[in-house]
Write a structure and sequence with these properties.
This protein has about 120 residues and is an alpha+beta fold. About 35% of the residues lie in helices and about 35% in strands.
């Protein structure tokens, strides 16, 4: 059963300007393993985190650095959640998260489907 969906779109040049103006955002928004990635990949991960928050229906108990986007050996992106963020997802009955990300032509996007057991 689908519990929630979320989508987000990021203007990569605008995202870059924001990071340049506020360098500490890198530490506040991204897990240590994500921080060295290329700008387009960071923008897509930011979109993924925003899309997850939308799929959850809000950000209560969610912390940006507890949402890490990793890749399976096939390259498929997956969420690696920790701390209170993992607890929020479990408390909402979510058993599976599906993520798709892309970037092209100065834009990055992500789509999330939060799935739970049928009632």
């Amino acid at each position: 059963m689908i519990i929630g969906t979320g989508i987000d779109l990021v203007d990569i040049p605008r995202f870059e300007r924001t990071l340049e103006r506020t360098p500490r955002l890198l530490e506040r928004l991204f897990a240590p393993s994500e921080r060295a990635l290329r700008l387009a990949s960071l923008a897509a991960r930011y979109a993924a985190k925003e899309a997850l928050i939308k799929a959850l229906g809000g950000s209560d108990g969610v912390h940006w650095t507890e949402i890490e986007i990793a890749s399976e050996p096939s390259g498929r992106p997956i969420f690696v959640l920790s701390g209170s963020t993992a607890a929020v997802v479990a408390d909402r009955g979510i058993t599976s998260l599906h993520l798709s990300m892309s970037h092209d032509a100065g834009l990055a996007t992500a789509f999330v489907v939060a799935e739970g057991a049928p009632l």
